[in-house]
Amino acid sequence: MAxxxxxxxxxxxxxxxxxxxxxxxxxELNELGNVYTRDEFKRxxxxxxxxxxxxxxxxxxxxxVFLLNxxxxxxxxxxxx
Length: 81
Description:
- The chain has 3 helices and no strands.
- By secondary structure, the chain is an all-alpha fold.
- The mean pLDDT is 89.
C-alpha cells in the first residue's frame, strides 16, 4: 500500500471529485449525495488496508460511471434542442 500521506491525499482527492460531480444535480439530490458521501467516507476512516483499496476502487468506478451518465444525458438533451 502507498505511504499514509499519499493515501490520505488520494482519498481527499476522490472525496472532492465526488462532491464536485454532485454540483450538477438538482439541489435536493446534491444535498442527499453529499450527506451520503460524507457518511461513507467517515465510516471507512479506520478500515483495513484491504477494505480501503476496495472502497477506493468502488468509489472511483462509481464516479466514472456517474460522469459518463452526465455526458450522455447532456449530449441527448443538446441534440433535442
